[in-house]
Amino acid sequence: MRISNPQLLPLCQSLWLPVTFRTQIRPLSRWHAQQSSDVYIKAAKAESYRCRSAFKLLQINESFSLFKGKKRVVDLGAAPGSWSQIAVKLARKEPSTIPVLSIDLLDFEPVPGTIHLPKTSVENTTVINKALEEMWGENKPQLVLSDMLHNVSGENSFDHINSLKLCSHVLKFCFIHLEDRGSVVMKIYNGPHEPEFIKLLQFYFKRVKRFKPDASRKSSKEHYIIAKGFQRDVYDKKHSRPEIQDDLSEELD
User: Fold this and answer.
1) Minimum mean pLDDT among 106-110, 205-209, 222-226, 246-250: which range?
2) If residue 184 lies in a helix (H) or strand (E), which one and from where to where?
3) Pick the catalytic residue: 70, 140, 172, 187?
4) What is the total count of domains within the chain?
5) Pairing label, strands 222-230, 183-189
6) In what helix (H) or strand (E) does residue 11 lie, and over which residues does it extend?
7) Which residues contact 23 (CB under 8 A, 6 or more apart)?
8) Domain residues for 57?
9) Nearest partner of 175 among 224, 149, 209, 140, judged by Cα
10) Is 187 assigned a catalytic role?
11) What is the pLDDT of residues 37-70, one digit of tens each?
C-alpha cells in the first residue's frame, strides 16, 4: 500500500515518538461561563459519571452498536474514568469475569468493575500482557477505546500531528492485542493527514467511519474514528514475524 502524500511518510516513520505538550490558557471567565451552561456537565453530575465525555461514548455506541456482544474491553487513556464507567455498564457480563481493563499514564481512582492500571504506558506490553492473561487467559480484547488527546495548544497543525501520534499508539496496540473482527474507537484532531491515516485503517479493518457526537462541543476540532472488523489474517500475511516495527514505514511501502 502506498501513501500518496509524501509529507506523511516522515511523519509515520516517527509516529512512536513521545507526544510534545503545549497548553493553551483560556480566559477563566469564558471557561466558567462555558462550564456553568454545559448540559452534559450537569447530566454527568446527575448520573454520577466522572466526566461529560461519558455521553460521547454513549452516543457513539448508540450510532454504531460498539458493545453488542463485547465482553472484553480495553480503555486506553482511561483517566478520569468516565469511559470505563460506560464500558462496565454496556459490556456483556460473564460470571467471575471482569470485562474492562483501564489504562492511563496518570494516576486515577479505580472504576468499580475494572482492572486498574494507572501510571502505565500503552506501550508497556509486559505489564499489559500480564493483566490481560490474568483477566481473560488466551482470549484477546474485542473492543479498544481511546479518548486520548494531548493538551491543545491552539496551533492546528501542531495539535493535529500530536493527535495523529496518539492514534498511532492506539493502532499499534490493536496490532498486538486486538481480537480478530474486533473494533476500535479513537479520538483524533482534524487535520490534513487524517485521510492517509484512515486509508491505513481501511487496509486492516472492514469498516471505518468518522463521527462527531453531539456531546462534543461545536467549537472543538475533535471527532472520532470508529473502525470495526479487524482483519488479523490481513495483518499476519503482511508481516513475517509477530513483533511490531517501531514505525509504520513498512506499512506504507
Assistant:
1) 246-250
2) strand 183-189
3) 187
4) 1
5) antiparallel
6) helix 8-13
7) 151, 153
8) 8-252
9) 140
10) yes
11) 679 999 999 999 999 999 999 999 999 999 999 9
Query: Does residue 182 lie within any of the structural domains?
Result: yes
Rounded Cα gap, residues 229 and 184, in angstroms: 9
In a domain, 53, yes or no: yes
CA distance 253 to 7: 14
Confirm if 113 and 90 have CB atoms less than 8 A apart: no
Q: Which CATH number is 127's domain given?
A: 3.40.50.150
Q: Which region holds residue 92: left if phi is over 0, alpha if psi is between -120 and 50, else beta?
A: beta
Q: 193: closest CA among 22, 1, 2, 11?
A: 11
Under the phi-then-psi rule, with left for phi > 0, alpha for psi from -120 to 50, and beta for the rest, what region is 146?
beta
Q: Is residue 1 part of a domain?
A: no
Q: Structure pTM? A: 0.82
Structural domain contains residue 3: no
CA neighbor of 48 nearest in space, from 79, 74, 81, 71: 81
Element (H, E) at 64: helix 54-64
- For 207, the enclosing helix (H) or strand (E) is strand 205-211
Mean pLDDT computed over 90-102: 91
CB contact burial 3-35 (16+ within 10 A = b; e otherwise): beeeebbebbbebbeeeeeeeeeeeeeeeeeee
Cα dihedral 133, 136, 140, 143 sign: negative
Name the grid cell of 148. 486520548
